[in-house]
Amino acid sequence: MHYYNHLVKINNLRNGGNRLSLLQLVVRYNIGALFMRPAVVELLGKKRYRKEKKLFYTVLTGTYDRLNEIPAKLPNWDYVCFTDNRSLTSATWEIGLLENPQGLDPVRLSRHYKINNHLIDSGYDLSIYVDANIRIRGDLDCFAAQALPVDASCGFLLHPFLSSLRDEFEQCIALGKDDRQLLQDQYDWYIREKGFSDPFPHINARMIIRRSGNREVRNLMETWFEQLLTWSCRDQVAFNYALNSHQGLALAYIPYWNFRRYFQKMDHR
User: Fold this and answer.
1) pLDDT digits (tens, 9 = 90+) for 162-192
2) Can you say whether residue 244 is alpha, beta or left, with left for phi > 0 and alpha for psi between -120 and 50 degrees?
3) Which of 65, 128, 242, 267 is the 20 to 30 Å CA partner of 59?
4) Alpha carbons 4 and 164: distance in angstroms, whole number
5) 251-254 and 77-83: which strand pairing?
6) Contacts of 146 (CB under 8 A, 6+ apart)
7) Which tens digits make up the pLDDT trace of 122-162?
8) Model pTM score
9) Are the CB atoms for 238 and 111 separated by under 8 Å?
10) In the predicted model, what is the mean pLDDT of the chain?
11) What pairs with residue 155 in β-bridges?
């Protein structure tokens, strides 16, 4: 029922907690899960972004992941893997070599380009980022049409298992994702020192869709990455705190069932 907790937060933000509005959100969510299959999306709105110039990209630093080849390319999409590995080759991806003038560690280097999309998607109308262990298995035009409403500047996945900042911190500590004390200090700073109430749905950052060149999106991304330079490298820990300073941004929350219809999560190397 994590999706319900997400919808409660969305309803609080958009509708002031109105119970009828929450019921409508729940109904729409479940109807979408049952009936909004790719074939239906293709009939209703696949052409929304078909003619725009689009970038599909991933970032691969070190040897943490292997690169999944593109099964079928679509027109008006460029597929680029940005990497610091000069020996990396691919039959389907264009390879872009990363610069590291700040001397970032491999994790933060990867997230520097993941988060700061304006560094690499200039000249495009929109871009989709995915983690390197994600494989395409559906029509990207259909996914973009469904994931990014015309009035939204960017879209993020709702987390399938976690529904709060506290959940994220506890999981990172339990799994040893970063230094325990650093994570605890970061959480205490957000909640106790800054009074952050965590009003937003919790995201999964393995996929991000953004309109390129949007100044508000860029401002949020820069604020977000600044938190990774200050605190833990875990980007999902910092996102909602960064978002709190940019609440006017038109952001779409994408159900995880939608992501699973177009992409497959593979094992890390």
Assistant:
1) 999 999 999 999 999 999 999 999 999 999 9
2) alpha
3) 242
4) 12
5) unpaired
6) 36, 41, 45, 258
7) 999 999 999 999 999 989 998 999 999 999 999 999 999 99
8) 0.94
9) no
10) 93
11) 209, 252
Residues facing 79 on adjacent strands:
56
The contacts of residue 54 (CB under 8 Å, 6+ apart) are 76, 77, 78, 124, 125, 126, 127, 128, 140, 144
Which value, to the nearest 10 degrees, does the dihedral of the CA atoms of residues 119, 139, 134, 157 take? 70
Neighbours of 1 (CB within 10 A): 7
Alpha carbons 36 and 261: distance in angstroms, whole number: 10
| Residue 98 to residue 82: CA distance in whole angstroms | 6
Q: How far apart are CA 30 and CA 33, in angstroms?
A: 5
d(C-alpha 14, C-alpha 17), whole Å: 8
Residue 19, pLDDT > 90, answer: yes
Sign of dihedral through CA atoms 82, 252, 226, 169?
A: negative
* Residue 53 to residues 2, 5, 38, 141, 253, Cα–Cα distance (Å): 35, 36, 21, 11, 23
Query: Is residue 155 a contact partner of residue 204, using CB atoms and an 8 Å limit?
Result: no
Q: How far apart are alpha carbons 205 and 183 in whole angstroms?
A: 18
